[in-house]
Write a structure and sequence with these properties.
There is one protein chain. The protein has nine helices and no strands. By secondary structure, the chain is an all-alpha fold. The termini are far apart. 33% of the residues are buried.
Length: 131
């Protein structure tokens, strides 16, 4: 049996690491997982969290392993401008990884990679090489 109130409290914890753990705990199977569906609004809110680890985890939970929609592509595109390279890396992965999407990617990766190859972070630029 799930502790809904406890899960919500952990998502709203003042401790960033507790929020990251809570995000990973609610979504082991992506969208369609019961806790994910119940806390979808909270996950979206955490995509704007002050802590970059929380933003990266929220992007991963919300957008990796699910088919892309116009709304999710817009959120991921905004994340490409995040100040923290790990958040930008998660966005690149979620936009370009065909293996993580049930019905493959619908995004033309060429413009994405042309943008990413100019990123200020070597770690983010290296995402182009992995694909």
């Amino acid at each position: 049996m799930c502790d809904w109130l406890g899960a919500l409290a952990r998502l709203r914890s003042p401790d960033p690491q507790a929020r990251v753990r809570a995000l990973h705990g609610i979504c082991p199977g992506g969208a369609g997982f019961p806790l994910y569906e119940r806390f979808r609004g909270e996950v979206k809110r955490l995509q704007k969290d002050p802590d970059s680890r929380v933003r990266a985890a929220a992007l991963h939970v919300e957008l990796d392993g699910v088919d892309l929609t116009a709304e999710s592509v817009a959120a991921l595109t905004r994340a490409l401008d995040d100040e923290h390279p790990q958040v930008r890396r998660k966005a690149v992965h979620s936009l370009s990884c065909e293996q993580c999407k049930p019905n493959s990617c619908a995004v033309d990766v060429r413009p994405l990679f042309e943008r990413v190859i100019r990123d200020r972070s070597r770690l983010v630029r290296s995402m182009v090489l992995g694909v």
